[in-house]
Design a protein that fits this description.
5-stranded parallel sheet, 13 helices, 35% helix, globular, binds threonylcarbamoyladenylate, binds magnesium ion
C-alpha cells in the first residue's frame, strides 16, 4: 500500500503548486489520476515502460488492452504518432481538445505496453484544464485508461477513483464531476474509411461532416483491432437487467416480482415508487446527456447497497439528444447488462 494524496482543485483555476506536484510524480514514474471531460483517467508517462506497467497492475487490467495517450500539443502528437493523414489533421483541428481518440501509427518512443503489442497508438487531447496543465507541465505524453479497477464502471468523480484505486496510486487530482460522463469515441484512422471502435460523444454524423464516410466496427475482425471491446466492461457486482422498452406498470411489476428473490435497484427516467426497504431507485432525465452524466455513478451508488439485481431502463424513443449520442449511451447500458427485456416481446 502507498499513500494516495487527494488534491482538491478549482477546475477553472487549478492551484499551480498541486499541478506541479502531480507533474513531478508523472516525471518520476508515478501514477496520477486526473479529470477529463469524459471520465477520470489514470495517468503515467507514456514513454516510460515501467510506469505504464504500473497502470496495468493498479487496475488489474489485462495486458492485451491498449491505453489512450493524452497530449496537450501538436508537438506531443507528432512525438507519439507518425504519418498523419489529411483526415487525421482535419479531425484534430475540428474536435480537439475533445472526446475523440484517434488510432494512429505509433512511434517507437511510446512504451510498448501502451500499445499492447499493436503497431498503433490511440491519441487524444482532452478538453479539461486540469488535464491539459498536468500534461503540459509534465512535458510528456500521458497514457491514461479510465481510472477504475478493471471491470468496474468508469469513474466520474474523484471519490470513485479513491474507492477503486486508493492505496495503489500516488495522487488524485479532484476537479469535481466530469461533464460528459462516458468515454471518448475511439476512431481507427489506419482503416480506410476510418472505423469507429467505440461510440462516444463525437458521433458518426459529426465525423462525417468533417471527413465523409466512417465505418462502424461490427465485424469481429475489426473488433479484434480494439482488444478492449472484447472485455466485459462497466459492470457493477449486481446482475444488471436492461429494459429496452417497457411501460411504467410493466417496470413496476417487473421490479416487484424481482423483489421476491432479493434486493432491487432501479435506474431510469420513469418514476417507480415501490415501498420496500430492499428497493432503491435513481431517477435520471430522459436525455442522452443526463444518462451519460449519471449512469456510472448511479450504478456505483446502487451497487453499494448490495442488491441482487439492478434494473436499468433505456432512454425512451422520445429522449433528447442526437441519435449518435443516444446510441453511445445505449452501447454502455447493453455492455453492463447480462439480460435485456422488452415488454412487447413478453406479451
Ligand atoms: O474518454 C476516454 O477515452 C477515457 C479518458 C481517461 O480519456 N479513457 C478511456 O480509456 O476510456 P480506456 O483504457 O478505458 O479505453 C480505451 C479504449 C479501449 O477500448 C482500448 O481497447 C482502445 O481504447 N484502444 C486503445 N488503444 C488502441 C489501439 N492502439 N488500437 C485500438 N484500440 C485501442
Ligand atoms: Mg476503461
Amino acid at each position: 500500500m502507498i499513500e494516495t494524496l487527494v488534491a482538491q482543485l478549482d477546475p477553472q483555476a487549478p492551484a499551480a503548486s498541486e499541478i506541479a506536484r502531480a507533474a513531478r510524480l508523472i516525471q518520476n514514474g508515478g501514477l496520477v489520476a486526473f479529470p477529463t471531460e469524459t471520465v477520470y483517467g489514470l495517468g503515467a508517462d507514456a514513454l516510460n515502460e515501467r510506469a505504464v506497467k504500473r497502470i496495468f497492475e493498479a487496475k488489474g487490467r489485462p495486458a492485451d488492452n491498449p491505453l489512450i495517450v493524452h497530449v496537450s500539443s501538436r508537438e506531443m502528437l507528432e512525438a507519439v504518432a507518425t504519418a498523419l493523414s489529411p483526415k487525421t489533421e482535419a479531425l484534430a483541428e475540428a474536435f480537439w481538445p475533445g472526446p475523440l481518440a484517434l488510432v494512429l501509427n505509433r512511434r517507437s518512443a511510446v512504451a510498448p505496453s501502451v500499445s499492447a503489442g499493436l503497431e498503433t497508438v490511440a491519441v487524444r487531447m482532452p478538453a479539461n484544464r486540469i488535464a491539459l496543465e498536468l500534461i503540459e507541465q509534465a512535458g510528456r505524453p500521458v497514457a491514461a485508461p479510465s481510472a477504475n479497477a478493471s471491470g468496474r464502471p468508469s469513474p466520474t468523480l474523484a471519490a470513485h477513483v479513491l474507492a477503486d484505486l486508493g492505496g495503489r496510486i500516488e495522487m488524485i487530482l479532484d476537479g469535481g464531476a466530469t461533464n460528459i460522463g462516458i468515454e471518448s469515441t475511439v476512431l481507427d484512422m489506419t482503416a480506410d474509411p476510418p472505423v469507429i471502435l467505440r461510440p462516444g460523444w463525437v458521433t458518426p454524423e459529426k465525423l462525417a461532416r468533417v471527413i465523409g464516410e466512417v465505418g462502424q466496427a461490427r465485424a469481429s475482425r475489426q473488433l479484434r483491432r480494439s482488444p478492449g471491446t472484447r472485455h466485459r466492461h462497466y459492470s457493477p457486482r449486481a446482475r444488471v437487467v436492461l429494459i429496452e422498452q417497457g411501460s411504467r406498470p410493466f417496470i413496476h411489476s417487473f421490479c416487484t416480482e424481482l423483489l421476491k428473490t432479493g434486493g432491487v435497484g432501479f435506474i431510469g427516467h420513469t418514476a417507480v415508487d415501490i415501498d420496500d426497504a430492499s428497493f432503491s431507485a435513481a431517477r435520471l432525465g430522459n436525455s442522452a446527456a443526463d444518462y451519460a452524466a449519471s449512469i456510472y455513478s448511479a450504478l456505483r451508488e446502487l451497487d453499494r447497497l448490495g442488491p441482487l439485481t439492478i434494473v436499468v431502463e433505456a432512454i425512451a424513443e422520445n429522449g433528447a439528444g442526437e441519435s449518435g449520442e443516444i446510441a453511445a449511451v445505449m452501447e454502455r447500458l447493453r455492455r453492463a447488462a447480462s439480460e435485456i427485456v422488452r415488454e412487447s416481446l413478453l406479451r
